[in-house]
Protein backbone atom coordinates (compact mmCIF):
# COMPACT_ATOMS: atom_id res chain seq x y z
CA UNK A 1 0.00 0.00 0.00
CA UNK A 2 1.47 3.33 -1.00
CA UNK A 3 0.70 6.68 0.51
CA UNK A 4 0.71 9.75 -1.70
CA UNK A 5 1.19 13.22 -0.37
CA UNK A 6 1.14 16.65 -1.93
CA UNK A 7 4.07 17.80 0.19
CA UNK A 8 6.84 15.17 0.15
CA UNK A 9 9.69 17.65 0.53
CA UNK A 10 8.01 19.49 3.40
CA UNK A 11 7.27 16.22 5.21
CA UNK A 12 10.81 14.87 4.90
CA UNK A 13 12.43 18.19 5.77
CA UNK A 14 10.10 18.78 8.74
CA UNK A 15 10.94 15.45 10.33
CA UNK A 16 14.65 15.87 9.58
CA UNK A 17 14.44 19.27 11.30
CA UNK A 18 12.80 17.67 14.34
CA UNK A 19 15.52 15.00 14.41
CA UNK A 20 18.39 17.47 14.20
CA UNK A 21 17.00 19.71 16.96
CA UNK A 22 16.15 16.76 19.18
CA UNK A 23 19.54 15.09 18.79
CA UNK A 24 21.57 18.23 19.35
CA UNK A 25 19.52 20.30 21.78
CA UNK A 26 18.16 17.47 23.88
CA UNK A 27 21.10 15.04 23.79
CA UNK A 28 24.43 16.49 22.65
CA UNK A 29 24.13 19.74 24.59
CA UNK A 30 24.33 18.13 28.02
CA UNK A 31 25.94 14.77 27.17
CA UNK A 32 29.22 16.34 26.04
CA UNK A 33 29.80 17.54 29.61
CA UNK A 34 29.58 13.92 30.82
CA UNK A 35 32.64 12.86 28.80
CA UNK A 36 35.95 12.44 30.57
CA UNK A 37 38.30 15.37 30.15
CA UNK A 38 35.70 17.85 28.90
CA UNK A 39 36.13 21.12 30.74
CA UNK A 40 33.49 23.85 30.84
CA UNK A 41 35.52 25.94 28.39
CA UNK A 42 36.00 23.05 25.98
CA UNK A 43 32.32 22.06 26.21
CA UNK A 44 31.22 25.63 25.55
CA UNK A 45 33.54 25.88 22.55
CA UNK A 46 32.13 22.65 21.13
CA UNK A 47 28.62 23.93 21.82
CA UNK A 48 29.26 27.15 19.92
CA UNK A 49 30.48 25.20 16.92
CA UNK A 50 27.67 22.63 16.96
CA UNK A 51 24.83 25.08 17.61
CA UNK A 52 26.16 27.45 14.94
CA UNK A 53 26.11 24.58 12.44
CA UNK A 54 22.66 23.47 13.61
CA UNK A 55 21.34 26.99 13.11
CA UNK A 56 22.57 27.03 9.50
CA UNK A 57 20.99 23.64 8.80
CA UNK A 58 17.72 24.80 10.37
CA UNK A 59 17.65 27.76 7.98
CA UNK A 60 18.07 25.38 5.04
CA UNK A 61 15.17 23.28 6.35
CA UNK A 62 12.97 26.33 6.99
CA UNK A 63 13.62 27.74 3.53
CA UNK A 64 13.01 24.37 1.84
CA UNK A 65 9.59 24.17 3.48
CA UNK A 66 8.83 27.77 2.57
CA UNK A 67 9.80 27.16 -1.07
CA UNK A 68 7.47 24.15 -1.31
CA UNK A 69 4.67 26.21 0.23
CA UNK A 70 5.23 29.09 -2.17
CA UNK A 71 5.21 26.64 -5.08
CA UNK A 72 1.97 24.91 -4.01
CA UNK A 73 0.02 27.52 -1.99
CA UNK A 74 -2.32 24.73 -0.89
CA UNK A 75 -1.24 24.15 2.71
CA UNK A 76 -3.93 24.58 5.32
CA UNK A 77 -3.50 27.90 7.05
CA UNK A 78 -4.00 26.20 10.44
CA UNK A 79 -1.11 23.84 9.74
CA UNK A 80 1.01 26.61 8.33
CA UNK A 81 0.62 28.52 11.60
CA UNK A 82 2.70 25.87 13.35
CA UNK A 83 5.42 26.35 10.74
CA UNK A 84 5.29 30.13 11.24
CA UNK A 85 5.74 29.69 15.00
CA UNK A 86 8.77 27.49 14.39
CA UNK A 87 10.12 29.95 11.84
CA UNK A 88 9.64 32.85 14.29
CA UNK A 89 11.47 30.92 16.99
CA UNK A 90 14.33 30.30 14.56
CA UNK A 91 14.52 34.04 13.91
CA UNK A 92 14.62 34.78 17.66
CA UNK A 93 17.31 32.19 18.21
CA UNK A 94 19.42 33.37 15.27
CA UNK A 95 19.36 37.08 15.99
CA UNK A 96 18.97 37.23 19.78
CA UNK A 97 19.60 34.06 21.78
CA UNK A 98 22.53 32.47 19.94
CA UNK A 99 24.56 35.71 19.71
CA UNK A 100 23.95 36.44 23.40
CA UNK A 101 24.74 32.85 24.42
CA UNK A 102 27.89 32.90 22.27
CA UNK A 103 29.01 36.15 23.90
CA UNK A 104 28.50 34.64 27.37
CA UNK A 105 30.35 31.48 26.35
CA UNK A 106 33.28 33.55 25.06
CA UNK A 107 33.54 35.39 28.38
CA UNK A 108 33.52 32.09 30.29
CA UNK A 109 36.09 30.57 27.91
CA UNK A 110 38.32 33.62 28.56
CA UNK A 111 38.06 32.90 32.29
CA UNK A 112 35.76 35.76 33.21
CA UNK A 113 32.98 35.46 35.74
CA UNK A 114 29.58 36.16 34.21
CA UNK A 115 26.36 36.77 36.11
CA UNK A 116 23.73 34.07 35.98
CA UNK A 117 21.21 34.30 33.17
CA UNK A 118 18.03 32.62 32.01
CA UNK A 119 19.04 32.72 28.33
CA UNK A 120 19.83 29.01 28.21
CA UNK A 121 16.45 28.16 29.72
CA UNK A 122 14.71 30.44 27.19
CA UNK A 123 16.59 28.68 24.41
CA UNK A 124 15.57 25.21 25.62
CA UNK A 125 11.95 26.27 26.19
CA UNK A 126 11.82 27.63 22.65
CA UNK A 127 13.36 24.40 21.33
CA UNK A 128 10.60 22.40 23.03
CA UNK A 129 7.92 24.67 21.55
CA UNK A 130 9.59 24.48 18.12
CA UNK A 131 9.70 20.67 18.14
CA UNK A 132 6.07 20.45 19.25
CA UNK A 133 4.97 22.87 16.51
CA UNK A 134 7.03 21.10 13.86
CA UNK A 135 5.60 17.74 14.92
CA UNK A 136 2.03 19.01 14.63
CA UNK A 137 2.85 20.68 11.31
CA UNK A 138 4.50 17.52 9.96
CA UNK A 139 1.63 15.25 10.98
CA UNK A 140 -0.92 17.62 9.47
CA UNK A 141 0.96 17.54 6.17
CA UNK A 142 -0.16 13.90 5.81
CA UNK A 143 -3.82 14.85 5.99
CA UNK A 144 -5.78 15.46 2.82
TrEMBL record:
Keyword list, A-Z: Membrane, Transmembrane, Transmembrane helix
Domain of life: Bacteria
TM region(s), chain numbering: 7-27, 75-98, 118-142
Protein name: DUF4149 domain-containing protein
Organism ancestry: Bacteria, Pseudomonadati, Bacteroidota, Flavobacteriia, Flavobacteriales
Amino acid sequence: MSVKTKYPVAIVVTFLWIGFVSAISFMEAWLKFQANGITLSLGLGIGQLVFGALNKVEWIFAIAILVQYLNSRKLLSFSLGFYYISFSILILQTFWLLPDLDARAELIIQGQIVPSSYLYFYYIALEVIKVICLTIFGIRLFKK
